[in-house]
Amino acid sequence: MLRLALIGTGNLGIHLATACSKQPQIQLVQWIGRTTQAPKHPNNIPYFTEVQKNIAADLCIIAVQDDQIGAVAEQLIDIDSCIVHTSGAAHLNMLRDCKRSGVLYPLQSFVKDQAVDWTNIPICIEANNATDLATLEQCARALSTKVFKLSSQERATAHLAAVFANNFTNHMVHIGQALCAQEKLPTKLLDELLKTTFERATNSLAENKQTGPAKRNDVATMEQHLKQLDQTKKNIYNAISKDIYNTHNV
User: Fold this and answer.
1) Which of 38, 111, 136, 174 could connect to 47 by a Cys-Cys bridge, CB 3.0–4.6 Å?
2) Would you list the DSSP string of 76-128?
């Protein structure tokens, strides 16, 4: 059985604690957070406000914001565990002062109180030695069927791709919903279109499913759209439309 220490009580920390507590191959021996009271969690995971160095763990997982990883890692350099961060963008070298280090990055967007199916979440792993990489793989495969061994550079590219595919796309949906709302149109007008868009994009390459006025270079329609937007949204509209046109016509 893998013994894990988990640092962090944000969205990812809570989701990891919940997922790990359901796996018989994993034992969460301590969960560390800054608040005196633990978040609600199953199976009475031992909770502390600082790492208990007398409680042995195979992996010590740092699930905090990227700009906090270094400060947390400094407190763990004398622990005989593989110290692991969960960031997509941070290099493995961020843990260079730790004797053993690794990365366990679940490529998913986590929202508080919204359950996810860990079985299909891609988990990207990396370690500074083969033994700890094998331990990380064992942990990742207990959670998911999709495990990828990626270098820091490969993982950074995957993270960038995820920002475009998820964060930017979600913001585009927000703009569409806001445009509907300002004219008192129901935002549900977009629901079926969104479902179809993502079904197409996940069943084949999105490039092959592109439609719309930018691809057709329908200038009249695009000019009409621009009249309906403020300057900030015009800039976004123009930049994306130009890129779509160049992708399909240049």
Assistant:
1) 38
2) TTT-SSEEEE--SSS-GGGGTTSSSEEEEEE-S---TT----GGG--EEEEES
Residue 84, beta-bridge partner list: 61, 102
pLDDT tens-digit readout, 171-214: 999 999 999 999 999 999 999 999 999 999 999 999 999 999 99
Domain membership of residue 114 as a residue range: 2-150
Both 108 and 76 in one domain: the answer is yes
Residue 2: in which H helix or E strand, if any?
A: strand 2-7
Instruction: Output the six-digit token pair for 243.
Output: 């890129």
Token output for 173: 């949906």
72 and 193 share one domain:
no
Rounded Cα distance, 171 and 194, in Å: 13
Q: What DSSP line would sit under 47-73, residue for residue?
A: EESS--TTS--SEEEE-S-HHHHHHHH
Distance CA 171, CA 13 (A): 24
Give dist(CA 221, CA 50) in Å, integer: 59
pTM of the entire predicted model: 0.92
Based on the domain organization, do 138 and 189 belong to the same domain? no
Q: Contact at 8 Å (CB) between 57 and 80?
A: no
Same domain, 207 and 91: no
